[in-house]
Design a protein that fits this description.
With 155 residues, this protein is α+β, with helices and mostly antiparallel strands. It has three domains: 48 residues, no CATH class; 50 residues, no CATH class; 39 residues. Helices cover 36% and strands 20% of the residues. The chain is built from four helices and seven strands. The strands form two sheets. The chain has a four-stranded antiparallel β-sheet with strand order 1-2-3-4. A hairpin with a 6-residue loop joins β3 and β4. The longest helix has 20 residues.
Amino acid sequence: MSTKIKSIYTERTVVISRAVLGHINVALPVGPDVNVSHSDLIAAVETECHVRLVPADAIVIDRADLAPVSIVDGRAVADGASDPYSASLVANPNWAWQYALNAIAVSEYLRAHLPVDEADVETLAQIIRQHDGDVSASVMARRLLATGKVTVKPS
């Protein structure tokens, strides 16, 4: 796989592709290709474009998604939340940051490990055993829904 970057002044292009041993091959319109390290290329993009590139699995929070903050009785209060967070204006900001990171960690865990009612699991397993056979997933889904014992919640 490669990416072509067209010049803004001419029809020439630079082609960037993954080379051997994790290096990046940069094919210039004239002259020999240049191989650079992945980290050097990323560092150059970050420096020259004034951006921060993050790993694909990073949690990125847009500052626009943060609640506005008001000062109420000497406390900084995040507005608009059903359970507003507040901290003293003299509180250590590192503590608030750690609190937020812990809350995100719990949120991510709960999203990945939705609680399941074991009685529901057993009921569904019994239905599947009754209708088991060499059938397609659609046929099985239709049969499960037809029992009236299985519902689908919109996500």
